[in-house]
């Protein structure tokens, strides 16, 4: 059985009212320092943990911020967002709970289990979920659009722009016959389709041939795919992310295809392993820290009743290494 405030009062030899005043740090009470210290020490000895639900009821708000992470594998952008958001909220005495959502239950079921102060969405919420949150008086950040504090790293235009940036870099270096290496992970389908669309649009605008598309397993050297590209005259490949690009580099080594002599490779995300690849991988670095700062600032603005801050303006950039 959990330890209650009544147990603390009994063990400390004081009234439950005194325990309540001490544990809730109630202002305006006339309790001596010795009694206060005795109650706190007794509570600690008994392992008393106050009810979060009861504390939220007393205060009219909770100490909890929930970040709803869709069914994605986490990567460097999301990791940066969560780390920074956790740090910023901790300085305000708030806790970040990350909910890795699955489609097996409606999202609105979550609000029956926890009552957060703010909900942070890393993707759009269904209209009925937004309505349920707002009816419950729960603030929402980032679940509608970039304009409401949404995370720019998952905006559709941003995702297409990443693919376009890959093509711009390859085209500027004289590569003309491109391929696309995408991910087999169905959870990333929306991202993959947007980035692929960006590559195709940029190729069309630059007058380049329609790029070939291949699905590349990040855990397997893509030797057969690279051999096919080599036979078809492909001279550069834009990869969904750095993990896929590393599989392409491994496949090129296995197939005896020189990089970048016969095949240039560009990744996306600038993971630490990219600089250590053979050859070092050219990639696209997203402004993860700036995006995370913006989302954290949006949460703080909501908590303080202030207008949302303007979105970050730092662009994604090409990190040029030996693979191109």
From TrEMBL:
Alphabetical UniProt keywords: DNA-binding, Transcription, Transcription regulation
Domain HTH lacI-type: 3-59
Gene3D superfamilies referenced in this protein's UniProt entry, alphabetically: 3.40.50.2300, lambda repressor-like DNA-binding domains
Sequence segments annotated as region (Disordered): 303-324
GO molecular function, one term: DNA binding
A Pfam entry, by short name: LacI
Domain of life: Bacteria
Name listed for the protein in its UniProt record: LacI family DNA-binding transcriptional regulator
